[in-house]
Write a structure and sequence with these properties.
single chain; 562 residues; alpha/beta; five-stranded mixed sheet; 18 strands; 27% helix; binds 2-acetamido-2-deoxy-beta-D-glucopyranose; signal; Phosphoesterase
Length: 562
């Protein structure tokens, strides 16, 4: 017998996202990298990471500079609006970028450190790396200044680690910046690149405007070189804020390169210099240095669905109708996991010869009998004939395997619940009828024109309240029934609305009769006036384009599907 796959006659099962607004065009992915596959270790999100560090500028000042201010607006780029440097002055920030902490370095004096760095992690996985430094003379030369002070050792963290300088092969990877163009020409740019401009180019001895102009002249021609650009993630940032007083140490940062596939212009995740390590570690499964890299936020390189592309989410939650009840006979696509007309329930599940009641396409808006919504009843409806369930109600049940869910007990439970005579088949069969799509034109049109989800399950095989608690809070706090007596005191669990509020994301619960979120103590704390609004506000806000980022709509509980 083909079972009724998903008739859950329980609290809340039919949900539709009716409006999503797309924030920007999806950009074309760049062509796959064309290199000797033996030489590169494919990463999850990129095949090369390049960091270019400029000097001593506050976020707002960097943004005012036209080139820096416009970088995030380009294809394959994104501006990071909440990127923090680690400390002051310069040197410990650079140390932090490759070491995961400042290693007790407080000043810009020459430091000699012996510890593991990102170099160890990279080499463990055979990932090539180089530190390119402008006006550096090579050979692990340790002078604090070289080339008339254009080169400053404090900005090239690799030379301060004996774990690197005592190893000739590693020393050979710290090179004068002029080598970059040779490496590009030879299609031999390493997979991890740390680029240190000189004291004028990075703005240290000049100003942000000079640094930005240098960056433009440096970057633009090289972005056109596939050996540098393709599937590369380039981070442009500043070592620290100019202003020492700010605790935030907020600096400009932007990602650009062939590996950046974001449709948004800005990203407000809380990044820091430690994100460099975390990003690289995750990309190639390098493990970690066990320092501040562990908990850092890795850079997002690709759109990750909802957060990026969607401006508004509107959730409308209806009552008491299963997927198959509503959409079992939506036949415009063969992909929909609906009904075939061959699905039936036996009047008595223990008697294979008892009458078969077929799921037909003639559901009505108001059925003569409400199916039982209690958990014990639902367990019987969805086909759990557990030895312990000798009758309804009150038996023990669960957990069950997926293939035990035969959807075979709706008819039997309906007969039991309402003491219907088995000879009254027309009355019994309402419980498994499905709608004729012509009778629910709105739902049908939404599904046809947008998307329909045919494996969406309610959280609790039970009634309205525990399911609505789950929808807003991911837990019913143990509630398994609809218990009006608990509404006044309210439920204590944290809700999605509190998380949204914490993240500065706007939300409203629009309602026709009652806002379902009012049963949460923590929603009450967030305030009724601004967040719980009658349905006419929803219509007005939708019309004027002022909907919050997340809207939850509670229609009147007496509305029937259409
Ligand atoms: C310093 O480095 C830059 C960039 O690598 C190079 O163009 C320049 O010739 C070097 N020397 C001086 C004295 O500027
Ligand atoms: C269902 O069928 C079983 C097995 O034939 C029988 O023992 C039982 O009495 C029937 N139940 C009802 C309610 O008719
Ligand atoms: C169920 O219906 C039958 C027949 O109509 C009736 O005799 C019986 O009393 C009813 N049982 C209950 C529990 O209402
Ligand atoms: C949903 O089910 C509950 C519980 O049986 C019932 O009280 C309510 O009237 C039903 N709501 C609708 C809209 O069918």
């Amino acid at each position: 017998m083909k079972s009724l796959k998903s008739i859950f006659q329980i609290g809340v099962v039919f949900a539709a996202i009716v409006q999503v607004s797309v924030a920007g065009p999806v950009r074309k992915p760049s062509a796959p990298i064309a290199r000797d596959a033996n030489k590169i270790i494919k990463g999850k999100n990129f095949d090369r990471f390049v960091v270019i560090v400029l000097e001593n500028t506050d976020y707002d000042d960097a943004l005012k500079q036209p080139y820096l201010g416009s970088l995030g607006n380009r294809d394959n780029a994104v501006l990071l609006t909440e990127y923090s440097a680690v400390t002051h002055p310069s040197q410990p920030n650079y140390i932090a970028m490759i070491k995961g902490n400042t290693h007790g370095v407080f000043f810009d004096f020459d430091s000699t450190l012996s510890d593991r760095t990102i170099v160890d992690l990279l080499e463990d996985k055979h990932i090539s790396w180089k530190s390119y430094a402008e006006n550096y003379s090579g050979g692990c030369k340790l002078d604090s200044k070289q080339d008339h002070g254009l080169y400053a050792r404090k900005h090239v963290p690799f030379v301060s680690f004996t774990t690197i300088t005592s190893n000739p092969a590693r020393c050979a990877n710290i090179v004068p910046a002029t080598q970059l163009d040779d490496d590009i020409a030879n299609n031999a740019v390493p997979q991890f690149v740390f680029y240190t401009p000189n004291m004028k180019d990075d703005g240290h001895d000049t100003n942000t405007d000079t640094a930005a102009k240098w960056l433009e002249s440096f970057l633009e021609p090289r972005l056109k070189q596939s050996a540098f650009y393709d599937n590369t993630l380039i981070l442009i940032t500043f070592d620290e804020q100019e202003n020492y007083i700010s605790l935030h140490n907020h600096v400009y940062a932007a990602l650009i390169g062939g590996a950046v596939k974001r449709s948004v212009r800005t990203d407000s995740n809380p990044y820091s210099h430690y994100s460099i390590l975390k990003t690289v570690e995750e990309n190639w499964d390098l493990g970690s240095l066990g320092q501040n890299d562990v908990d850092a936020t890795p850079f997002v390189t690709k759109d990750n669905g909802l957060g990026d592309r969607i401006k508004n989410i509107v959730m409308v939650m209806m009552e008491n109708r299963s997927f198959d009840k509503m959409a079992g006979y939506f036949k415009y696509s063969p992909d929909i996991n609906g009904l075939t007309g061959k699905e039936y329930n036996l009047v008595n599940t223990s008697d294979p010869n008892s009458a078969k009641i077929y799921a037909t396409m003639d559901a009505s808006y108001i059925d003569p009998d409400d199916p039982n919504h209690g958990i014990d009843a639902v367990v019987e409806q969805i086909g759990i004939h557990h030895p312990q369930i000798t009758g309804y109600p009150g038996s023990a049940f669960g957990p069950f395997k997926q293939n035990q869910l035969t959807m075979s007990g709706f008819v039997q439970n309906m007969i039991k619940t309402h003491n219907i005579s088995t000879s009254d088949l027309p009355r019994i069969k309402h419980v498994i009828n499905s709608f004729n799509p012509a009778d629910i034109p709105v739902t049908h049109a939404l599904a046809q024109n947008f998307a329909i989800i045919d494996h969406w399950y309610a959280s609790v095989p039970g009634s309205t309240q525990p399911n609505r608690l789950f929808a807003h809070a991911a837990t019913s706090h143990g509630e398994t029934t609809t218990t009006a007596g608990n509404y006044l005191a309210g439920y204590p669990q944290k809700t999605i609305f509190n998380s949204l509020d914490d993240a500065g994301i706007t939300w409203k619960n629009y309602f026709q009769q009652l806002p379902s979120t009012i049963v949460f103590q923590q929603v009450r704390k967030l305030g009724f006036v601004d967040n719980l609004k009658s349905y006419d506000h929803f219509l007005a806000d939708a019309k004027t384009g002022t909907l919050p980022q997340y809207s939850f709509v509670d229609p009147t509980y007496e509305k029937f599907p259409s």
